[in-house]
């Protein structure tokens, strides 16, 4: 078996704290992602999803509350927009772009791509790029396949072809990286060293797993835990000089007690000097210059062997 | 005849139905089946015609009815028993389930008592505890910090999504290095339980673990134990060989579900799983009579319980994912309770979980607080095992 295909997506050892550098001597990078996906199932956004109170709140007041808080703390966020919402909520997307946020693609309708045939996935990807470009006024450089609240795994949706298709589609990063807590390369072909930059995602910093109420049948309102996770991770990563990221959804974080928690956390974050708060594209551009794959993707030959009676 | 059914492990209702079915076949079977003569008299037909006419039905009854009734007890017991959660009304509440267990069966109370007493006796015979454990001079309490370095292997074994694999990959690329850096900064020796396959995926990290003086122990070749005995031995030997390629010596510890006889045959001196006692204790193999030392851990002191999404199949509306402050308090309480008793704590961490920056910071805080008390010993699991084996050997088997 060549390399460790089927087991790993990146190289054997991640970059250490001392190897990192941020623009203008900043101490720590910060990325805030706003996911507009309201899909409740793997098929993606349905009519029923859009008619629910959560989606209506998220598209209207929830989003306004969130924009106001981001604005108050001068946070330029990266917005993951499913293509169907780029069309349906085009005015909101334009307003977000005008605020200085980056508009990225969030799938055609926030669906699970892992079960699609390659041609179908490619067609959806192309159409998504067009629709998001139309709404935002510029093509998206980033792609997010973030998980939905009902998913069995909280890692997001990526097929065996996704990375290859994104590279072919001109994308510069994917926002689904779980193999590191800093940007890292997601390799689609180890022999050819074909790779796309992955920006970190980790579910402990994503509001939807702690603010599930009022999803049917749950009473999971753990906004306090979410806030403690944000604070603990930010403190640790700031201390190490690394990268802090978080994901919020207007339909979840926009509600009274939760938006208050976000407001307080961002205020706390902003009291730290030396932060580089950046959008996905700005991070990708910095990474391409400071940590290019030619020098920073360190693929060593595999010692993996196939054995009868073992996994291959 | 109840004791006959009980003796062959058959439900008494099932046994009764089988007996009636066999009697019925007997009534129809030539040349002396009673019902053949009844039919001959009732229809006024010759005996030979009745016999010829009945033969196909006997075959049908024997082939289908008897075989199906015998092989499928659930058919007979449909209205009688309700296996918990799996029966036809499994999942329904008691209020909605129209037929309740035991309506038609007579309980064998004496038999129940005997079977349960035997099970408890087997469990007692399997465990041998150390009532008053002693530690080396100056030690009040022992703490094993252990890492289950399985990265993405279990996710791969369960054929999960690329994101799940990447979540585990964090443990190999980042987490393991940070955990070792943490232990080294505190002068603590840890034990890394690793599947053999992980040695092939992350040899550099494991060489570093060994070079820094931490123990590398077995965690199964591919994080599972094959059912076939020969393949099981093959897997265990492959895992040991993989570890030997890093450390130059045969591992003596394991955290696995391998059969105890095999482990002892292959030179292992301790296993680390289960929680029948706070303190290290022995498991006696009923087959060989030999005892193997166990270094217990409890899921309460396992990072994956509180930080890993969907761990052990927890549903989304029942997520246990928590925050480091809460876990730190819980683990400190566990430590403090054992510290007062002069006991033992095994802290189980996964590099893909605890290697995240916020949790490394939490462990740094927690371990420093433990170290601030006098007499807390942080040996490798092997070092601790050798002390217990020498100071508190198992009784002769």
CATH class of the largest domain in chain B equals Alpha Beta
Distance between the termini of chain A: 8 Å
Rg measurement of chain A, Å: 19 Å
Give the name of the CATH architecture of the largest domain in chain B. Alpha-Beta Barrel
Query: Under the CATH scheme, which architecture of chain A would be assigned?
Result: Alpha-Beta Barrel
Strand content of chain B: 5-15%
Report the major sheet of chain B: 5 strands, mixed
Oligomer: heterodimer
Count of discrete domains of chain B: 2
**Low-pLDDT segments of chain B:** 82-99
**How many β-strands of chain B, per DSSP?**
10
Helix content of chain B: 40-55%
General shape of chain A: globular
User: Segments of chain A where pLDDT lies below 50 for 5+ residues?
Assistant: none
Q: How does this model look, in words?
A:
- The complex is a heterodimer of chains A (312) and B (397).
- Chain A has 312 residues and is an alpha/beta fold.
- Chain A is built from 12 helices and 9 strands.
- Chain A has helices spanning 47-51, 53-59, 61-72, 83-88, 90-98, 118-136, 162-168, 223-240, 250-253, 256-270, 280-290, 293-296; strands at 28-35, 78-81, 102-105, 142-143, 173-177, 184-189, 194-200, 243-248, 275-277.
- In chain A, the strands form 2 sheets. In chain A, strands 1, 2, 3, 8 and 9 form a 5-stranded parallel sheet that branches. Chain A has a 4-stranded mixed sheet with strand order 4-5-7-6.
- In chain A, α2 (53-59) packs across α3 (61-72), α3 (61-72) packs parallel to α10 and α8 (223-240) runs parallel beside α10 (256-270).
- The longest helix of chain A is centred in the middle third of the chain and has 19 residues, at 118-136.
- Chain B is of the alpha/beta class.
- Chain B has 2 domains: 2-96, no CATH class; 134-391, Alpha-Beta Barrel (TIM Barrel).
- Chain B has helices spanning 2-7, 12-28, 34-43, 47-71, 73-76, 109-126, 153-157, 162-186, 196-201, 203-211, 229-247, 260-265, 304-307, 324-341, 351-354, 357-371, 381-391, and strands at 127-128, 141-148, 190-194, 215-218, 253-254, 270-271, 281-284, 291-294, 344-349, 376-377.
- A 5-stranded mixed sheet of chain B has the order 1-7-8-6-5. In chain B, strands 2, 3, 4, 9 and 10 form a 5-stranded parallel sheet that branches.
- Mean pLDDT of chain B is 88; it is low at 82-99.
- Classes of the chains: A alpha/beta (312), B alpha/beta (397).
